[in-house]
């Protein structure tokens, strides 16, 4: 794969959009992460239970950092440029270097829902994946009832490919997953 793949894991890449800085998540972000993961409406379609303590946010951050160091995932913290405050994350997981493919995932503090944040951020992350990491395909799995997720993906050119029945086991039950994808040559 492209040299950029390895470079993405040598030094954490910082990306800027018009309004946000996409940066490495730090342990000091735990309070901000807890502020949104402690809300049921954020975890409704997420594969995590709603957080009940800041410790859970610390553990998630440690896991994200470990998975980055292990070259299994790259997850950017979405920070407001004016104060560096974390308001969500976005990045790639399920990386398949041999197949030039990754899955994209994201979440955002509800105070920022509907304001174009994720469309702006996903555009930057997708661009980095295709042009710097050498990806050819970026997939997104989401709950078929999560219409907001489908809309933001469509805004970024992702095409709906279908429903995978009972694809994931989350919160004690099997759930369907919608899949959308974007190919480099289409972007």
Any overview of this molecule?
Keywords: Transferase. This is GNAT family protein. Its EC number is 2.-.-.-. By secondary structure, the protein is α+β, with helices and mostly antiparallel strands. The chain has a single domain (3-183), classed as Gcn5-related N-acetyltransferase (GNAT) (Aminopeptidase), CATH 3.40.630.30. Helix content is 30%, strand content 33%. It has six helices and eight strands; from the N terminus they run H-E-E-H-H-H-E-E-E-H-E-H-E-E. The protein has an eight-stranded mixed β-sheet, with helices on both faces. Helix 5 links the parallel strand 5 and strand 6 (137-142).
Write the layout of secondary structure elements.
Layout: H1 3-7, E1 15-16, E2 20-24, H2 30-37, H3 40-43, H4 54-69, E3 74-80, E4 86-96, E5 101-108, H5 117-131, E6 137-142, H6 147-155, E7 159-170, E8 173-183
